[in-house]
Design goal:
By secondary structure, the chain is of the alpha+beta class. It has a single domain, classed as Creatine Amidinohydrolase (Alpha-Beta Complex). The protein contains 4 helices and 13 strands. The strands form 3 sheets. Strands 6, 7, 8, 9, 12 and 13 form a 6-stranded antiparallel beta sheet that branches. Strands 1, 2, 4 and 5 form a 4-stranded antiparallel beta sheet that branches. Helix 3 runs antiparallel to helix 4. The two termini are 27 Å apart.
Length: 257
C-alpha cells in the first residue's frame, strides 16, 4: 500500500530532511586520510541529535549505528568500523533521520583526497562518481505528477548502463519513505517491466530515489559474516547516491537538499 502524505506530514519531513542534509554534507567534509569510519558515524549521530532529530537507522532492528559507510567495493549497509580512510578511497555514506514520527533517507559517495592537493585531470574513478550524480539527477527529473516509477528507473539505467557501461545493482532498490524507513513503492534503478505497468506517481507520494551501481558487473554478495555488509562480487568499485523527495503539482521537491 502506497501512503500519501498530508501537507502537515510533508512539512515535518521537510524539517527532518534539512537536519539530514545538513548532517550528511557536514560529515562528508570530515572524511580525510586517517579519519575512521566510526569517527564519521559518531559525528553524524552527534549532529543529528543536536539538531533535534534521532538517528533513523538505529530504529532498524539489529542495527546499531547512525550511518552505513560503504568503502570501495562495499555497495550498501557497510557497518562502520575502525578502518581509517586512505587517499583515493571511494566512500559512500548513507544516513537517515527520524523526526517527529517520520523518516528521511539520503546517501552520497565521494573520493578521499588530501586537502590542498593540486587539482589533477579527471580519471576513471572521478568519471564513475560523476555518472552516479548524473543518474540520480536524471531519475529525480522524472519524478513528476502523472509519470510512473518506471520513468525514474529508466532514466537512471539509461545513464549508468546505456551511456557509460557500468551496472545498476538489481537486488537493491529505492523505496517509499515516511512513518517507516522503507515503504511502498519500490523504486528500482533499472526497468524490468513496461513503464505503464509500474506504479503511477501521485501528489503527496514521498520516495527515496537511489542510484546504486557498480563499475564492474551488477552481482553482489554478503560479506564479513555480519548479515549486513554487501559487496560487489567482482570486487569492483561501487557508488550510491540517494535523495528523499515528494511528488508535487510543480515537480519533485527534494526534502534532503
Amino acid at each position: 500500500m502506497i501512503n500519501i502524505k498530508t501537507k502537515n506530514e510533508i512539512e515535518i519531513m521537510v524539517n527532518g530532511g534539512k537536519i539530514l542534509a545538513d548532517t550528511l554534507f557536514t560529515v562528508l567534509k570530515e572524511i580525510k586520510p586517517g579519519v575512521s569510519e566510526l569517527e564519521i558515524d559518531a559525528l553524524a549521530e552527534k549532529l543529528i541529535r543536536e539538531k533535534g532529530g534521532e538517528p533513523g537507522f538505529k530504529k532498524v532492528p539489529g542495527y546499531h549505528h547512525a550511518t552505513c559507510i560503504s568503502t570501495n567495493d562495499v555497495v550498501v549497509h557497510g557497518i562502520p568500523t575502525g578502518y581509517q580512510f586512505n587517499q583515493g578511497d571511494v566512500v559512500g555514506v548513507d544516513c537517515g533521520v527520524y523526526y517527529k514520527g517520520f523518516h528521511t533517507d539520503m546517501a552520497e559517495t565521494i573520493r578521499v583526497k588530501i586537502q590542498n592537493s593540486k587539482v589533477k585531470s579527471e580519471d576513471n574513478v572521478d568519471k564513475f562518481l560523476k555518472v552516479g550524480k548524473e543518474a540520480l539527477e536524471a531519475g529525480i527529473s522524472q519524478a513528476t505528477l502523472g509519470n510512473h516509477v518506471g520513468d525514474i528507473s529508466k532514466a537512471i539505467q539509461d545513464i549508468v548502463e546505456g551511456q557509460n557501461g557500468y551496472s545498476v545493482v538489481r537486488t537493491l532498490v529505492g523505496h517509499g519513505v515516511g512513518r517507516q524507513l522503507h515503504e511502498d513503492p519500490e523504486v528500482p534503478g533499472f526497468l524490468s517491466d513496461p513503464v505503464v505497468k509500474t506504479p503511477l506517481l501521485k501528489e503527496g507520494m514521498v520516495i527515496a530515489v537511489e542510484a546504486i551501481y557498480n563499475m564492474g558487473k551488477d552481482e553482489v554478495v554478503y560479506s564479513g559474516g555480519d548479515d549486513w555488509t554487501i559487496k560487489t562480487k567482482d570486487q569492483s568499485l561501487s557508488g550510491l547516491f540517494e535523495r528523499t523527495l515528494v511528488i508535487t503539482k510543480s515537480g519533485p521537491r527534494i526534502l534532503t537538499k
